[in-house]
Design a protein that fits this description.
This protein has 128 residues and is α+β, with helices and mostly antiparallel strands. 34% of the residues lie in helices and 41% in strands. It has one domain: Ribosomal protein S6/Translation elongation factor EF1B (Alpha-Beta Plaits, 2-Layer Sandwich), CATH 3.30.70.60. The protein has helices at residues 19-35, 73-85, 106-118, and strands spanning 4-13, 39-55, 58-71, 89-97, 126-127.
C-alpha cells in the first residue's frame, strides 16, 4: 500500500446555487476521499467571495478548502475528475503539502478579525 500524502484542495462553486449545494459538493468530495481510504483532516467554507477575474462569466463564488490525507495518484485523479464533471464547480486546485495545518487558514483568521471588529459571529473551521 502506498504511503499517505497530504493535499490541500480548494474549489470554487458558482454563486447562483443554494447554500445546500455547497454542502452537498463538500459531502461528495468527502465520499470520494473515503472511497480511497483517505481522510478529510480539515474543511473550511470561506463563503461567497469576489473573484479576481471572471470565471465562466461569474464574478463571485463560494470557496471551500479541504485538507486531505490520500494514498496514491488514483485517489487524486478520482477527486479531480469528480470536480471536473460537476456543473456547480467553476475552478479547483489541488496542491501536495508536507502537512495539513491544524490552524485556521489566513482567510478565516482575517474573517475572524473582521467579525470581531464589527461584532458579527466569526466562522470556525470544521476539524475532522
Amino acid at each position: 500500500m502506498n504511503a499517505m500524502a497530504f493535499y490541500e484542495l480548494t474549489y470554487i462553486i458558482r454563486p447562483d446555487v443554494p447554500t445546500t449545494t455547497v454542502d452537498a459538493v463538500a459531502a461528495k468530495m468527502a465520499d470520494v476521499v473515503k472511497k480511497h481510504k483517505g481522510k478529510v483532516l480539515k474543511s473550511e467554507q470561506w463563503g461567497l467571495r469576489t473573484l479576481a477575474y471572471s470565471i465562466k462569466k461569474h464574478r463571485k463564488g463560494y470557496y471551500t478548502m479541504m485538507g486531505l490525507s490520500l494514498a496514491g495518484a488514483e485517489a487524486v485523479n478520482d477527486l479531480e475528475y469528480a470536480l471536473k464533471v460537476s456543473d456547480d464547480v467553476i475552478r479547483f486546485m489541488t496542491v501536495k503539502v508536507d502537512e495539513v495545518s491544524k490552524e485556521p487558514s489566513a482567510i478565516l483568521k482575517a474573517k475572524s478579525r473582521m467579525g470581531e471588529a464589527d461584532g458579527s459571529d466569526a466562522v470556525a473551521p470544521m476539524m475532522v
